[in-house]
Amino acid sequence: MVGTRGHDVGTMEPQELAEKMKEFGAEAVQLVAYKAIRGVSSKPGAMDAETAAGIRKAFEEQGIRVSIVGSYFNLLERPEELESDVQRFKEYLKFAKDLGGSLVGTETGSYDAEWKFHPENHTEAAFEKAAAVIGELVRTGEAVGVQVGIEGAYDHVVYSPEKMAELIERIPSDNLRVVFDPVSFLHKANYREADRMIDEAFRLFGDRIALVHAKDFVLEGDGIKRVPIGQGLMDYDRLCGKIKGLGREVDIIVEELTGDELRESLFFLKKRMSDI
């Protein structure tokens, strides 16, 4: 199924959000409740079973699947912030099934407070710190029967497919899964190697991919600029072929697009997946 992040459509009541997503053609949602659902705080203790069930019902009525519950936080942040965010993540693991999901996700973060690149992100010390937090989350996930999805990005701690494979080797639990965002692994120096990177990712951990994030890009100035899907350099025939080759259903979530660009991107991906 192909969908989008709820908060890219807006922040509103669950029923209204689900209806709007359906109008765009979304079949699935990445649900970050505290960004997408009006009145839900990002602080621990904001979610409960009754609220979660109401949200699930709204999406079920529109035939939209909750592909992933987002509780993104910076695994390298200060201890007092980390404690609060870990608590919130564990709460979303607890209520994920009530929300209609079975996967809760986060990125690995940065020593930079705005999540930008920091040279220490790619050190072994940063990896050890992030892996320790992820291991704790995975153990909680195992206890409640919910998977933990980790998303890599070049600017962060898990900065390459090889580093993701190292994390999986470090935490050999079936409850650890991958949210694969190929564009997030790219930068000015390696964007020409996108095809090789995709092939390597599916070779290393294709069996662990639970969700794929979809973006497209062109090179502009000193960096990569995001563009609507199908209008950039990403080879979606290759990526969609790899997804189909897994032999199981893996949802694709469009990121950072709204309006007509979102609608067109969802249509593009549905057609690509059906044509392969």
Automatic annotation (TrEMBL):
This protein's name: Sugar phosphate isomerase/epimerase
GO molecular function: isomerase activity
Keywords for the protein's UniProt record, in alphabetical order: Isomerase
Keyword 4Fe-4S (UniProt): no
InterPro entries: IolE/XylAMocC-like, Xyl_isomerase-like_sf, Xyl_isomerase-like_TIM-brl
UniProt keyword NADP present: no
Gene3D superfamilies the record matches: Divalent-metal-dependent TIM barrel enzymes
Domain Xylose isomerase-like TIM barrel: 19-271
Organism the protein comes from: Anaerotalea alkaliphila
